[in-house]
Amino acid sequence: MYLDYWGLKKKPFENTPNPDFFFYSVNHEEALTRLLYGVKERKGAVMITGDIGAGKTLLSRMLVRLLSREEKGYNIAVVVNPNLSAEDLLRELIYQFGGLESLPPVISKLDLLHRLEDTIFESNEKGQHCVLVIDEAHVIKDEAIFEEIRLLLNFQKNDAFLMTIVLLGQPELAQRIRQHEPLAQRIAIRYNLSGLSKEEVGKYIDYRLKASGGNREIFNATSVEEVYRASKGIPRIINNICDLSLLMGFSSQAEMVSDAIVKAVADDLRLAARYVK
Asked: pTM for the full model?
C-alpha cells in the first residue's frame, strides 16, 4: 500500500525469515560465526539462545543459505516444530535427509534408528556432512526428546561427528539443557543473542530500506532514537514499529517518518499488547 509513496520495491519490515534481510549486527555476526565454525569443524552440537524476536530463526535461515553455497556438500534438515514423539522425530529426519524411500509404514523405533544411521553414513560417503537445525527447541514438551538428541550424537567416526545438531530457542532452553548433563556436555559452542544497540538500530533500518529499493532517508535521527527506545533493540519489534510507521506516514502524507509518528505507533502497539494479555 505504501511502497510507491516511499519509493520502495518491496516491504522492508516483514517479520519473515528472509536471508536477504539478514543484518550483520555485532551479536548476529558473532552468532553466525559460531554456527559456521561448529558446522564446518564438525562439532557435535551448537546452541543459540535469545529472547523472543531476537532473530534466531532468521539466523538459522542464513546459516542454511551459506552452507548451501559451499562446494563442500551439506545435507541439511530443519525441524521447525520439535514437539514430536521420538518416532515421529526420527521419521522426519529420515525424510529430510533423503532416506525415506521404501520405508514401511509400520516399523520399530530400533529399525528407524538403523535407517537414520545408514542414511547419515551414506551422506558421509558422498562427502556430505549432515546438519540438523532444531528451531524453537525450548517448546519441546517430552523430556525424552533431549535424550534422543543426545543419542543422535553417537553417530560418529573415530575422529569426527557425522552430524552437527544446532539448537535454537529462548533462554529457558539453556536451563532445560543443564538438567540433561550428558547432552549439556556435548554442546561444544553456545551463544546468547541479544538486541541491537542504538547505533545498530539506525543502520538496521537503513539496511532494510535499501534492500527494499529505497534510496533516500525516511527515518531521521530522532525517529530512530524513538524506535530504539520503544523496541529495546529487538528486531521483531523494530519491524512492527517501522512497518506501521511507514503506513501512518503514508496516510498522513508525511515527508519523513517523524518521532511523533513512531511514538504514536509504539503507544498503539503497547495498548494492543496489553489488550491481548
From this structure: 0.92
